[in-house]
Amino acid sequence: MSQQGINVLALLKGEERYVFLYDDRSIDQVLQTLGRYAADPELSFSWYDAAVLSQRVRKLSVETEDIAPSASDDEHPRNRIGRAA
């Protein structure tokens, strides 16, 4: 059984804020969105930004799969908020 919830991925870049909310079933869509943002010349979001955030999405996905929920997880939920500089 996997944890249900919303993952928050944020990139703070100068005055700009990129915040992505997704659940575990939407990983492919968030990865595609990162690529679309990187390809958009009107955004300051770079391919490097997309690569770093993609790594974080994949790492969180693997960590979530590796951790089986237990009673103690309910008492002390994992902080799933990531921040990239």
What does this entry look like structurally?
- This protein is an alpha+beta fold and about 80 residues long.
- Helices cover about 45% and strands about 20% of the residues.
- The protein has one domain.
- The protein is built from three helices and three strands; from the N terminus they run ββαααβ.
- It has a three-stranded mixed β-sheet with strand order 2-1-3, covered by helices on one side.
- A hairpin with a 2-residue loop joins β1 and β2.
- The model has no long low-confidence stretch (mean pLDDT about 80).
The main sheet comes to: 3 strands, mixed
Number of strands: 3
Shape estimate: elongated
Structural class computed from helices and strand pairing:
alpha+beta
* Number of H- or I-type helical stretches: 3
Distance between the termini: 32 Å
> What is the N-to-C succession of helices and strands?
EEHHHE
Helix content: 40-55%
- Poorly predicted parts: none
Number of domains: 1
Order of strands across the main sheet: 2-1-3
